[in-house]
Design goal:
Helix 11 (305-318) runs parallel beside helix 13 (385-405). By secondary structure, this protein is α/β, with parallel strands linked by helices. The strands form four sheets. An eight-stranded mixed sheet has the order 2-9-8-7-6-3-4-5. It has a three-stranded antiparallel sheet with strand order 11-15-14. The protein has a two-stranded parallel ribbon with strand order 1-13. It is 37% helix and 16% strand.
């Protein structure tokens, strides 16, 4: 029979967080092996429970959640999001500027689908959360990666951004706090990005899903709060700050200069209507989450579980010969570097596969986040301290044997 091929639109789409190595891990689990998973920020599997009041609100409202909602979302959660944008000092946002989605992920794809024609370019950070690159490609656009500088605490390289702008550039993506590096951008850096967007009339897509997952007293600034004459699309949700990944409750806020974007916004409205609506049970959780007790502060503050695990993970990682890592100021991840002399890796996916096979530890290779060199990997520090200690002991053993095999010990 004639083979059925996948769409050519998927030729440049990659999402290695759930890629081939993950499939190998599933196979090993089916064979009875226990895998320590440091590959994905799924908080529930590590016993990070959502706030109880969110769960109870969803249960109480389930009887009212059977019908379609407004295509942009129900009024009450959108009003709560509007109030949240005011707390973040984002000006001029109305109810009609807010779209609720099945997680921020759906809205990322929607935002790109409504914008891009074939050949349009979008500036995306390297490293990035790979859905951004995939969404640009799937929408017919061309992702152009600008460098985040590891030697400068993973800050965006403004000169590199400027050098990659062409007449085809339509937008720039800013992931702050950053996944996978854990970087948090100061106001000065955000202002420079705004100025670039202003000069070149770029849309700014701001991924702020970790804006409350902050350590050491750090404060997050929404880039959309810094200007009124640039178009911003800010994305957020309940998945991380409220440990509610599976509820798929995210939102997108359109703000700034909207007068010249009426046609684009009409496109967003069309796509929102085509998917009918976001899931209603998840929408019922939003108002309670944003207005309730912010338990994330207990997890990231002094004595908090996430803070302890971040500190332990960083300590154990950087104690391994040839491993360096910028300590994250936010989010749930680290993006350590392997000394290329001590670890002459040619294929980092194969490297991660070998680690999984030998030590039963699952990571994601750096190139899975569109990092150009095979010398990084991403670590999730969500497991408890005992499991983290076990995992990093196994990683250290694997790296020691790797150095011996390659004569770089």
């Amino acid at each position: 029979m004639r083979p059925i091929q996948k769409s050519q639109k998927l030729a440049d789409v990659c999402y290695d967080i759930r890629g081939p190595v993950m499939e190998k891990a599933k196979q090993m689990e089916d064979e009875g092996h226990k895998i320590i998973k440091l590959n994905i920020g799924n908080l529930a599997v590590f016993n990070f429970d959502p706030p109880d009041e969110i769960v109870q609100d969803m249960i109480r409202n389930m009887q009212n959640a059977a019908g379609y909602t407004d295509s942009k979302g129900m009024f009450s959660p959108r009003k709560a999001i509007m109030h949240y944008t005011q707390e973040k000092h984002i000006r001029g946002v109305t109810i009609e500027d807010i779209y609720i989605g099945n997680g921020a992920s759906e809205l990322i794809v929607m935002g790109m689908n409504a914008l891009l024609n074939s050949g349009d370019e979008v500036l995306v950070p390297a490293p990035d959360y790979p859905l951004w690159t995939a969404a640009v490609s799937l929408s017919g656009g061309k992702p152009v990666h600008y460098v985040c500088d590891e030697s400068a605490d993973w800050m965006p390289d403004i000169d590199d951004i400027k050098s990659k702008i062409t007449p085809n550039t339509k937008a720039i993506v800013v992931i702050n706090p950053n996944n996978p590096t854990g970087a948090l951008y100061p106001v000065e850096v955000l202002q420079q990005i705004v100025e670039v967007a202003r000069q070149h009339q770029l849309i700014v897509f701001a991924d702020e899903i970790y804006d409350k997952t902050l350590y050491d007293g750090e404060v997050h600034t929404s880039i959309a709060s810094l200007a009124d004459d640039v178009l911003f699309l800010t994305l957020n949700g309940l998945s991380k700050n409220y440990r509610s990944c599976g509820y798929r409750a995210g939102w997108m806020v359109v703000s700034g200069e909207k007068r010249h974007a009426k046609d684009y916004i009409e496109g967003l409205n069309m796509l929102a209507s085509m998917r009918l609506c976001a899931n209603a049970p998840g929408q019922f959780a939003i108002q309670t989450a944003l207005g309730g007790y912010q338990s994330i502060n207990d997890l990231v503050g002094p004595g908090g579980r996430l803070l302890k695990q971040r500190d332990l993970a960083h300590k154990l990682l950087t104690a391994i010969p040839g491993v360096t890592c910028v300590k994250p100021k936010a989010a749930l991840y680290m993006f350590p570097k392997l000394d290329p002399v001590m670890y002459p890796i040619k294929d980092d996916q194969e490297f991660i596969h070998e680690l999984l096979t030998e030590q039963r530890v699952l990571l994601v290779q750096g190139t899975g986040f569109n990092w150009i060199n095979p010398d990084h990997f991403r670590v999730v520090f969500l497991p408890n301290t005992d499991d983290l200690t076990d995992a990093f002991g196994r990683i250290a053993s694997f790296l020691e044997s790797y150095r011996k095999r390659h004569g770089t010990n």
